[in-house]
Amino acid sequence: MESLYIRINQAWDDASLTGAPEVLEAIQETLALLDQGKIRVAEPGLGGWTVNEWVKKAILLFFRISKMETIQNGPFEYYDKIPLKKNFAALGVRVVPQALARYGSFIEAGAILMPSYVNIGAYVGSGTMVDTWATVGSCAQIGRNVHLSGGVGIGGVLEPPQAAPVIIEDHAFIGSRCIVVEGVKVGTEAVLGANVVLTQSTHIIDVSGPQPVTYRGEVPPRSVVIPGSFDKSFPAGTFQVPCALIIGTRKESTDKKVSLNDTLREFNVAV
């Protein structure tokens, strides 16, 4: 791994090295490891999530060395640089027709892809469902037993290499048509109601206590979140600006599905 790290960084700093056989081999090997889930763009640790910049650099270098070609998939034809992921039966992943995952993404055994899209560098954990017309952007990290409901948009990021990807932690529920972009992290077991939009500048306001508490870029674990708005003054007057409201906390339970259903009913959250 250290050898790959060194060669990728050298090629990134000096473009003239990109065509060298040992660099081409390093790029291909890194992408293969990424596709197999043996390395990740970002990974959790005791101190939080760490972004592996060199892996993102390898993806960008892979785009440089790859050539456009026709990809035939039954009656469907595509023209792109990146091949599609294959061998889902061997991987233990259920893939409904019209679901697409690019090579260099990792889908763990037990995940389900409804007609959806998973981009290069993304990670999707076991037991997670990527529901109809949901998209998982490049390098996004989706935990285990997550539900990305219909039409959810999880943003991707490749540049700059140090930029953190969107992270959805284990057992989270992301409601229909939610948008999560710009490296926002959604904590373990959090619930986002339908149409919540989260960016780095979105005010995520906890209104469940006596005083509001505002977060940015992160939804705390087990939070129940719905769309909201707040008044903001502009030269032309005062207008309402979208925000996200934390209205309660999902109760811990051994059975996550029962806990989720109870939470949705208790807070009357649209999903």
List the helices and strands and how they pair.
Layout: H1 2-13, H2 21-35, E1 42-45, E2 48-51, H3 53-65, E3 69-73, E4 76-80, H4 88-91, E5 94-95, E6 100-101, E7 106-107, E8 112-113, E9 117-118, E10 123-124, E11 129-130, E12 135-136, E13 141-142, E14 147-148, E15 153-154, E16 167-168, E17 173-174, E18 179-180, E19 185-186, E20 191-192, E21 197-198, E22 204-206, E23 213-215, E24 218-219, E25 223-234, E26 237-249, H5 256-267
Parallel strand pairs: 5-8, 6-9, 7-10, 8-11, 9-12, 10-13, 11-14, 12-15, 13-16, 14-17, 15-18, 16-19, 17-20, 18-21, 19-24, 20-25, 22-26
Antiparallel strand pairs: 1-2, 3-4, 22-23, 25-26
Helix pairs in contact: 1-2, 1-3, 2-3
Relevant terms:
single chain, 271 residues, alpha/beta, Tetrahydrodipicolinate-N-succinyltransferase, Chain A, domain 1, UDP N-Acetylglucosamine Acyltransferase, domain 1, 2 domains, 5 helices, 26 strands, 31% strand, globular
